[in-house]
Design a protein that fits this description.
The complex is a heterodimer. Chain A is globular. Chain A is an alpha/beta fold. Chain A starts with 15 loop residues before the first helix and ends with a helix. Chain A is 36% helix and 15% strand. Chain B is an alpha/beta fold. In chain B, strand 2 and strand 3 form a beta hairpin. The chains are: A alpha/beta, B alpha/beta. The interface between A and B is medium-sized, with 23 and 20 residues.
């Protein structure tokens, strides 16, 4: 296993070969989770800290379970129940954790760049589990894994990411990751939710959803966050849903192998209709299953080195 | 009588259009004369000889925009450390902004700063008073009282006056006392929670952006209000192409407005924020290449009158945090001269133009009797080695603030001797 990976702060830390390695490793990891005894001794004696500054169910559970299935010692720290509420700085928290000599620190933080700051101050490998509106690289990797699993290829696929691109770390990581693998990426949403100069990332921008999803292979539907509503980005949930909601009516002309994804948690009836979320195109639950496999692969690659 | 002779130096004194070899005779802290023939000076007595061979000799630099942090934020900087840092950078006069604690919106705070500077400072300190009470943008500060106490301008720097009517009144009222109003132009509703320039870099870093227009709109408003009122307006730290164009146009129509730029705004771009470098977090934010080019053109054609540091020291715990939480600002005294000389080395400005924007122009804007080497003036003089390799090292800074994006950078040019009223306040060892 040849690689130079030490940490994953963003997709640009990964070469195309590294991504291939993670996807391949994730395939074997997925098999482990399908066994009767879902545990291997691979990371016995390794310590993984999940440092979560932001509430998270699926990502935290996914990382925790990933560590446990590989037999690592996993410690979960959430901001609300730690000295962070007493005003400890990120650097001090990092140094304190480092003194316990963990192998990997997985960090989720509400502020962009926090994992980078942590990484500069610890020697453990740092994995970004989502920082502010910057990146969520493991989500992009599991998205990639899920697409390839379903469509059996990546190169040349047409993907559209729909919704609040401005405030989405998933969108940024997906764009970087999909582009790296040779996919054709576009984004769609109201102009207020499309960030400045996003075209320079090599994506096309659509305000018209119908046009954006013509002949599309993959739709990534993003969550509309409650806090964006009523702050001038769009007038109402009703109007958003009318113009950008993914529903079966919009998918009538879709190709048969269309894949619809969502990083969760979903707002049923807002950005995605129940019949699509639960319908034949949806691979939303596969994403969750694959997320575990991809995170096992990442922990294995980083700690097993 | 104390006498000193600066000999063999190349004199650049833009106020008098001098660019030539001269010797300078100083007596009791006053410049007596500039002359060619050394034989005329009697060398007996306690004449101190300062050899300026291969050096340029310029008027002591004047910084019209700095934060000395005292009173109230002595953990960031004091008048003593700030003025020592300024002296090491070649400055002999500095105007300090009012955002201290308490805010400088009264004669008592101005008095404190002036007295403290006399007791502990190394260079001349000119306080800038607040434009509104407690910098709150609600009620005018007592301009008359402040002027009498010695402020050279008023400004709500950093907390811009959003209420256009109050800004109008401030410009009008400032006229009463012939006070300059320095405006930090930022539409706070547009910049909102932005932490860097809005553009490709902010998009990829997932940081909230501040569009150029947050500055442009307020520059336009303030220029129009200055025209309406006749109040003397100075635009602080110009960072955008739009602002340069607006100021150029206003000047061409005869408006009596002046403008400054900070060295980081012509030396760096938003690309330098990459990797979440909080030392490059500043307001206004580092902009794009086009803006940098426009600023250089503005400096060259006189649209931008002066170079000012916006020296803003912070403690490490205010910068070694998540980018969004980091304080805005960077220290500037000890990097301003080499960065400004970069304009000369790149061919953007002549050497005399650079020196003028660091000396006579800011002094004229503040209306203080500084920034020249005319006989009869205070011997505030800086001797510069323009070719000296200057590798920026924060550990050698005199400032308490180590917050600079220029650390480790190899620049050229350094003040080697700084005199204030003939007294050595800094000499390079």
């Amino acid at each position: 296993m040849e690689h130079t990976l030490r940490q994953i702060l963003g997709i640009n830390d990964l070469r195309k070969d590294d991504i291939e390695l993670i996807l391949q490793t994730a395939e074997s990891m997925k098999e482990i989770s399908q066994r009767d005894i879902k545990k291997v001794p691979t990371l016995r004696g390794k310590t993984i800290v999940n440092l979560f500054y932001e509430p998270s169910t699926r990502t935290r559970t996914s990382f925790e379970l990933a560590g446990k299935r590989l037999n690592a010692d996993v410690i979960n720290i959430s901001a609300a129940s730690s000295s962070i509420v007493k005003g400890e700085s990120l650097i001090d928290t990092g140094k304190t954790l480092q003194a316990l000599n963990p192998d990997i620190i997985v960090i989720r933080h509400q502020k962009s760049g926090a994992p980078h700051l942590l990484a500069k101050n610890v020697t453990a490998s740092v994995v970004n589990a989502g920082d502010g509106i910057h990146e969520h690289p493991t989500q992009a990797l599991l998205d990639l894994f899920s697409i390839r699993e379903k469509l059996e290829r990546l190169e040349g696929l047409k993907v559209c990411i729909v919704g609040d691109i401005s405030h989405s770390r998933v969108a940024r990581s997906d764009i970087l990751c999909f582009k790296k693998m040779g996919m054709d990426v576009s984004v769609a949403g109201p102009a207020t939710l499309i960030p400045t100069d996003i075209e320079k990332m090599g994506v096309r921008v659509f305000y018209d959803l119908e046009k954006a999803i013509e002949n599309i292979d993959v739709i990534v539907c993003l969550r509309i966050q409650n806090e964006r509503m009523g702050s001038g980005f769009f007038p109402s949930v009703k109007e958003y849903s009318e113009f950008y909601g993914i529903n079966s009516g919009r998918l009538k002309k879709a190709n048969k192998r269309l894949v619809v994804m969502h990083p969760g948690p979903i707002n049923r009836g807002i950005e995605i209709s129940p019949e699509v979320a639960d319908g034949p195109f949806s691979i939303i639950l596969d994403q969750v299953t694959n997320g575990l496999a991809v995170r096992m692969a990442i922990l294995y690659i980083l700690a097993g080195k | 009588m104390k006498r000193a002779l600066i000999e063999n130096g190349f004199i650049i004194d833009p106020a008098n259009n001098i660019e030539d070899y001269f010797n300078i005779l100083i007596e009791n802290g006053i410049i007596v004369e500039l002359f060619k023939n050394k034989g005329r000076v009697t060398l007996e007595g306690d004449l101190e000889i300062i050899d300026a061979k291969d050096r340029i000799v310029i008027p002591g630099m004047v910084d019209l925009h700095a934060h000395l942090r005292e009173p109230g934020f002595e953990y960031k900087e004091t008048i003593a450390t700030g003025t020592m840092s300024a002296a090491a950078g070649g400055f002999t006069s500095v105007a300090c902004m009012a955002n201290t604690n308490p805010v400088n919106d009264s004669a008592s705070v101005s008095d404190f700063i002036i007295k403290k500077a006399v007791q502990e400072g190394y260079i001349n300190v000119y306080p800038v008073g607040a434009a509104t009470k407690n910098l709150e943008g609600k009620l005018l500060a007592p301009f008359g009282e402040l002027k009498r106490a010695g402020v050279v301008a008023v400004s709500d720097d950093g907390s811009p006056i959003m209420d256009s009517n109050l800004m109008r009144r401030a410009l009008e009222y400032a006229k009463t006392f012939d006070l300059l109003l320095i405006s930090h132009c930022e539409d706070l509703r547009l910049s909102l929670s932005g932490v860097m320039n809005e553009g490709y870099v902010s998009t990829t870093l997932g940081l909230r952006g501040i569009p150029n227009e947050a500055e442009d709109i307020m520059v336009a408003r303030d220029l129009l209000l200055s025209r309406l009122t006749g109040g003397r307006l100075h635009i602080a730290h110009v960072s955008t192409e739009g602002a340069v164009n607006l100021i150029r146009e206003a000047k061409s129509r005869g408006l009596n407005v002046t403008a400054e730029v900070a060295p980081h705004h012509f030396s760096l771009t938003h690309e330098d924020v990459a990797d979440f470098n909080t030392n490059a977090k500043v307001k206004p934010p580092l902009r794009g290449k086009r803006d940098v080019e426009a600023i250089k053109e503005g400096l060259a054609d006189g649209t931008i009158d002066a170079i000012a540091t916006d020296h803003a020291p912070h403690a490490s715990h205010e910068k070694d945090v998540e980018f969004e939480d980091a304080s805005f600002g960077l220290v500037g005294f000890e990097t301003a001269l080499p960065l400004s000389l970069g304009l000369y080395y790149s061919g953007a400005l002549t050497l005399a133009q650079v020196i003028k924007k660091l000396t006579f122009s800011p002094a004229s804007i503040l209306n203080i009797d500084k920034g020249t080497l005319s006989p009869g003036k205070d011997a505030d003089i800086t001797i510069v080695d323009v070719n000296k390799k200057n590798i920026i090292d924060v550990n050698r800074f005199f400032s308490k603030g180590k917050n600079t994006p220029f650390d480790g950078m190899a620049l050229k040019g350094k003040a080697v001797l700084t005199l204030v009223r003939g007294r050595r306040v800094f000499s390079e060892s």
